[in-house]
Design a protein that fits this description.
332 residues; alpha+beta; Arc Repressor Mutant, subunit A; two-stranded antiparallel sheet; 15 helices; 40% helix
Length: 332
């Protein structure tokens, strides 16, 4: 393999990975690889560096943008371009490339199976806070819990200026379950980027809420960026394909924060049906005295997603506020 692809992998701190270098090789020819290595830069600067006509540089940038490898620095003067900045952005942007080949998707799956678990563990040790967080389900929450606008799905969608939906990159590549695929919502800047690339479609606020409700019914957990401004994405994650859930469930690696809430079960209202046990991927729910007895929640294991209360036939489950608003980092 040409060493330039290893250099590109090194740009996202994965120069040791032959798989990541191979993914770059499937996305960019050597001429495009040279352009990527010359970033960040504007068209004029790139044309001079590469000894190429500006029109040719613009053509290559357009192709690389569609593939998810470059992003526009719109605030730069003059306008400039940058390369993907890390593995997560590389994964999420390139996997919804409309012309992605089966070879490309399969190589991503190979990387996630063999290299991601150790990488996720290293990331979790280096960062003060995980890069994603759980958002509780969009159902009614008791008055004693203060659902703030940055964690209320209804408020996030209502305030969004633009919304788009894409296929879930994780289930697209891993293919370990048959849960819904076109459920990854892009909000504001994320939506504008998705629509410009042609990697998703714009949806109304009503359709976005329908997608979220259907995701809850399908047992998917709402996840977004771990800060108080939601301008990028609302993922709907499964326990088997997602970047964050499997490494948490299998290895105890936290690259995702819980929500500010913990589920609570009213023992008198609980029928002991056990439906919530099946819905909880984190094994946070158990019987009080044996199968058929009222259930109880282990707060140390609960991620506060609220999936358990979606299907509770007696409405015995509620979400209780157990962490302060400052638990979620402020807007960036």
């Amino acid at each position: 393999m040409d060493p330039r692809y290893q250099q590109l992998a090194a740009r996202i701190n994965l120069g040791h990975s032959e798989r990541i270098a191979g993914l770059f090789a499937l996305l960019a020819d050597l001429e495009q690889a040279e352009l990527l290595l010359a970033l960040p830069a504007g068209v004029g600067e790139l044309a001079a560096k590469l000894d190429q006509p500006s029109r040719r540089v613009e053509e290559m940038l357009k192709d690389l943008f569609r593939k998810g490898l470059v992003f526009s620095l719109s605030k730069a003067d003059p306008p400039a371009w940058r390369m993907v900045k890390d593995m997560v952005q590389f994964h999420d942007a390139t996997l919804v490339w409309p012309e992605a080949t089966s070879e490309f998707i399969d190589l991503w799956r190979d990387f996630m199976e063999h290299e991601w678990p150790d990488l996720a563990k290293a990331i979790s040790k280096k960062t003060a806070k995980p890069f994603t967080r759980v958002i509780p389900v969009g159902l009614a929450v008791p008055a004693r819990a203060q659902i703030l606008d940055f964690e209320s799905l209804a408020d996030i969608i209502a305030k969004a200026k633009k919304i788009a939906v894409t296929k879930c990159t994780c289930r697209l590549s891993m293919r370990l379950c048959e849960r819904p695929l076109e459920v990854c919502l892009q909000v504001n800047r994320g939506a504008e980027y998705t629509i410009a690339r042609g990697s998703g479609r714009e949806v109304s606020k009503d359709e976005a809420m329908t997608i979220l409700r259907q995701s809850e019914e399908a047992g998917l957990i709402h996840v977004t960026v771990n800060r108080q401004d939601v301008n990028n994405f609302i993922c709907n994650c499964c326990p088997c394909c997602c970047q964050t859930m499997p490494v948490l469930l299998k290895y105890g690696t936290y690259v995702i924060d819980p929500s500010r809430y913990t589920a609570g079960i009213d023992a008198e209202a609980c029928s002991g049906c056990g439906a919530c046990h099946e819905r909880c991927y984190f094994k946070a729910i158990s019987w009080t005295e044996g199968e058929g007895s009222p259930s109880l929640v282990d707060p140390a294991k609960c991620m506060g997603c609220g999936l358990c209360l979606v299907t509770c036939p007696t409405q015995a489950i509620s979400l209780e506020e157990t962490r302060p608003a400052a638990f979620v980092p402020g807007a960036a």
